[in-house]
Write a structure and sequence with these properties.
Blueprint: H1 2-7, H2 11-16, H3 18-38, E1 46-55, H4 56-63, H5 82-95, E2 99-108, H6 110-113
Antiparallel strand pairs: 1-2
Length: 125
């Protein structure tokens, strides 16, 4: 519900969930700072994956952005395990045959991210 509201810019959902959005963002910020200060590999480039289903319309729009910068206006859950993300893409298609399963492959450079105000954190634990 939260990501749908953020993605579609549904003001009523964002207002109702504002307290949760702020708390979640703050928790991610705190975890990000903690992990950056204690992780000696915090500057190593790494990849994460996200599998999901997209409508044909959204997929066509996405194809036009290939090789270009993308931004998301929602919270993303990713995995370092490609197979897990592929499973999520397949599950989306299995539940709705009108969707196209896709796999986002994102390369994260923590040194570039350190210059940004967008926090990220490993929440596997």
């Amino acid at each position: 519900m939260l990501n749908r509201g953020l993605r579609r810019m549904e003001v009523d959902i964002m207002l109702k969930m504002g307290f949760f959005i702020r708390a979640l963002h703050k928790d991610i910020e705190n975890l990000h700072l903690q992990q950056q200060s204690t992780n000696t590999a915090a500057t190593a480039i790494f990849q994460v994956f996200r599998g999901q289903g997209l409508s044909v319309e959204d997929f066509e729009k996405l194809k036009k952005t290939k090789g270009r910068l993308m931004s998301f206006n929602n919270f993303l859950s990713t995995s370092r395990n490609r197979d897990i993300s592929l499973w999520f893409a397949q599950q989306a298609v299995d539940k709705n045959s009108g969707l196209i399963g896709i796999l986002f492959v994102m390369t994260i450079d923590p040194t570039v991210c350190a210059k940004s105000s967008i926090p990220f954190a490993d929440v596997k634990n």
